[in-house]
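notes to self, project folder thing:

trying the whole complex as one job this time. last attempt i did each chain seperately and stitching them together was a nightmare. two parts in total, labels are on each line so i dont mix them up again. if this works i'll redo the older ones the same way
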Amino acid sequence: MGNFDKKIETFLNVFIDGGGYKTVIEGLKNTLLIAILGLLLGIVIGTLIAAVRVLPKYKTLPKVLNGICSVYVGFFRGTPMVVQLLVFYYVLLPLLGIRMDSVTVATWVFGLNSGAYISEIMRGGILSVDPGQMEGGRSVGLSYSTTMLRIVIPQAVKNILPTMGNEFIALIKETSVVSFVGATDLYVAFNNMGSSSYEFMVPYLVMALIYIVLVLVISLLIKLLERSLRKSDRNH
Amino acid sequence: MIETINLNKSFGSLHVLKDINIKIEKGEKVVIVGPSGSGKSTFLRCLNCMEDPTSGQVIFNGVDIADMSVNINIHRQKMGMVFQHFNLFNNKTVIENIMLAPVYVEKKKRRAGIRQKLFGKQPAEPIKSVKEIKAQAHAQAMELLARIGLQDKADVYPSLLSGGQKQRVAIVRSLAMQPDVILFDEPTSALDPEMVGEVLELMKDLANQGMTMVVVTHEMGFAREVATRVIFMDEGRILEENNPKDFFEHPQNPRLKDFLSKVL
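result (full assembly):
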């Protein structure tokens, strides 16, 4: 294991003296930024799509909207995230003549992508709420959208929180694909350190550790959030 | 007050309601009985368009609410409904359950008033502040809770109430909108036998105060005691309607005779 000690020393050299920690911090920042903003965007998009998809479909407008949403979900679930990222960065944006830095593009793509997944999670959540809740709201004269927003969706969110945690964790881990469009995330930061010292073992190990710690912390936060929401069911 | 004209309802190829014509006047307590699957619940749910009638009219206070272009929400505010499974909002406390709709309506009025003012018109009613609206709704809700003796449950979530308590809260929730009529859809069918009494007691109370009620129930005792008119439905038609005395003592229709011999 004498060899391993040397490897750690090399790593520490690059990490501290070589300024590697700065890239790591930037990478960590980007990873979290893309995952968190992506998730928030995904929740907004996903909730909207889910709300459209559970609409009663007597009229034309809900049918059309539903069709659009189906295509959207089909596209984003049907292609890998890397492909979406590449298409957006190298095809769509140049075609539209828009300039955007790679982190922003990644955030948007992550948001759009997770929106597709979250819409299905949310739809399941809404369908899991007793239809009587909607009837109760409608019977006192609340509109469909008000009842949805104030009665059904809050209960749906409570039901799907564990699955949402899953989605967030998946997003964090999937940020490692943003290096394809030249953004710095955790993976890029450690990979750089590896290439500059020709020594990959320790950087990758540390990288894995950081991911694990990140995910553990998030799972803990979700658990706490869940508990505080459940508490409202059984107080007094 | 409510009138249905040639009301029909089909679920797919299943013809549930067949040309129902009925007139319900203010102050009446109409009890609808019949075997399960006779369409009585569907009929009740058509009265406030919880189920959209397939054809026909439902006239409520002079407006055909079965017409899809009518804003049904406004009319439902004056037409309370009590369900078999209570349908209290699980994510709201008891008092929030009662306050939600009145606050929503008042806030809507407030926004309309502000809009009118913006366009230089005099609003029809003075504009209340949100605080005022909430305080009023709260006071009213507490009053209603006091009426059913559940003030101490105001800040509790419905999951902690017994079935009878839930149903009584559901009834005062519909009362909070000061409805012209309340529809009861088998209000005691999901209750433990010992809790049926407290709910029926409250309903009798309402009846005595002159509330117009349409009740679908299996409680024949309630029908006999409270109803001003009892209706027998089977296979989507009204087969007999009469005052409770004649209804129970001198039934005419053979199906009704058969039905009564089984349930009484």
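what i see at first glance: The interface with chain A takes residues 48, 50, 73-78, 80-81, 83, 85-92, 100-101, 104-105, 155-157, 159-160, 170, 173-174, 176-177 of chain B (CB under 8 Å).
need to look closer tmrw
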